[in-house]
């Protein structure tokens, strides 16, 4: 009754995964384990790509910012869900919900932008190796990253402004573990969310442009790699490209499925699982995927585990 009164007053009620107390605690513990693992994995990548002079190329500079995005992205939703489950209280204030939508959207857009940038970096490195240092010089790298963060923030401002300009007519109950935009649209007044649809359409076009750019980059990359006479050279090129393809495919497919499918009036466990696949799984898998397929990353990680000393002198890329 108290929760119901709170949701009718100001905030929202996140239903989460279950009403059974034991399952709530189990979900909180599982989310806590995943969250700590994700924090550790991404922090390790940030540390070793900062202090190891052998990992100062643009690829690792972009990977460091991808890890920073992943670390922030999972921190937007998972800690709140853990707290709600442990406290047995799904209430979230409108201010918290607005911040969640803003940061979730901003970081998701920025992640797509940096994945596009990373595909261009691989394209320049493999297709134009002699001109690579000119194409991806430190100044361009820095401005590209600034553009990534600014584009993400712009998307977040647009989407959040459009979402919370609508009027919520129905009970403020969200059948998710975070403030999910499709769920928010379900409780809005009829035909009151056309502005959100317009913003979503614009962002979909931008996402499609990013996707086409990534596909074209990898068509050129693979056509070039297959012409490399050395088996070792082909293996090295694939080792830096295949993880990126997997991350992009997984991220875009799960996100597109979740946001493009119609929301049902009676949410199922499948809807919650899909949200986990695009909100929790990518930040958790990225450190594993990028580390296991990259010998330089594995060597730097071994040095970190063994307490080895990293060479910290300034390099050509240090200003990045």
TrEMBL record:
GO cellular component: plasma membrane
Span of domain G-protein coupled receptors family 1 profile: 41-290
Transmembrane segments: 25-48, 98-120, 141-162, 193-219, 240-260, 272-292
PROSITE patterns attached to this UniProt entry: G_PROTEIN_RECEP_F1_1 (PS00237), G_PROTEIN_RECEP_F1_2 (PS50262)
Main location: membrane
Ranges in coiled-coil conformation: none
This protein's record includes keyword Lyase: no
Source superkingdom: Eukaryota
Keywords, ordered alphabetically: Cell membrane, G-protein coupled receptor, Membrane, Olfaction, Receptor, Sensory transduction, Transducer, Transmembrane, Transmembrane helix
Keyword Ribosomal protein set for record: no
Name of one Pfam family that matches: 7tm_4
Any one GO MF annotation of this record: olfactory receptor activity
Topology with respect to the bilayer: Multi-pass membrane protein
Location(s), subcellular: Cell membrane
Function summary: Odorant receptor.
UniProt record similarity statement: Belongs to the G-protein coupled receptor 1 family.
Name the record gives this protein: Olfactory receptor
Originating organism: Chrysochloris asiatica
Gene: LOC102832189
């Amino acid at each position: 009754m108290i929760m119901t009164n709170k949701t009718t007053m100001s905030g929202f009620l996140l239903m989460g995964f279950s009403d059974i107390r034991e399952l709530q605690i189990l979900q909180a513990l599982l989310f806590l384990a995943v969250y700590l693992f994700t924090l550790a994995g991404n922090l390790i990548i940030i540390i070793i790509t900062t202090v190891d002079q052998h990992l100062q190329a643009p690829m690792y500079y972009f990977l460091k910012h991808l890890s920073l995005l992943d670390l922030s992205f999972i921190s937007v939703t998972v800690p709140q869900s853990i707290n709600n489950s442990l406290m047995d209280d799904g209430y979230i204030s409108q201010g918290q919900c607005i911040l969640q939508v803003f940061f979730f959207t901003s970081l998701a857009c920025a992640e797509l932008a940096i994945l596009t940038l990373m595909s261009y970096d691989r394209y320049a490195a493999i297709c134009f190796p002699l001109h690579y240092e000119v194409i991806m010089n430190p100044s361009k790298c820095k401005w590209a990253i600034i553009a990534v963060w600014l584009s993400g923030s712009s998307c977040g401002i647009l989407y959040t402004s459009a979402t919370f300009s609508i009027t919520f007519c129905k009970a403020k109950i969200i059948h998710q573990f975070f403030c999910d935009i499709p769920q928010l649209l379900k409780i809005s007044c009829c035909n009151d969310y056309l502005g959100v649809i317009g913003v979503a359409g614009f962002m979909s076009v931008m996402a499609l442009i990013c996707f086409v750019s990534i596909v074209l980059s990898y068509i050129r990359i693979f056509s070039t790699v297959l012409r490399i006479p050395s088996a070792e050279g082909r293996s090295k090129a694939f080792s830096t490209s295949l993880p990126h393809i997997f991350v992009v495919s997984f991220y875009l497919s799960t996100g597109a499925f979740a946001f493009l499918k119609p929301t049902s009036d009676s949410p199922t466990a499948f809807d919650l699982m899909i949200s986990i696949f695009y909100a929790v799984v990518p930040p958790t898998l990225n450190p594993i995927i990028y580390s296991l397929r990259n010998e330089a990353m594995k060597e730097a990680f071994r040095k970190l585990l063994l307490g080895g000393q990293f060479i910290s002198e300034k390099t050509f890329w240090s200003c990045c």
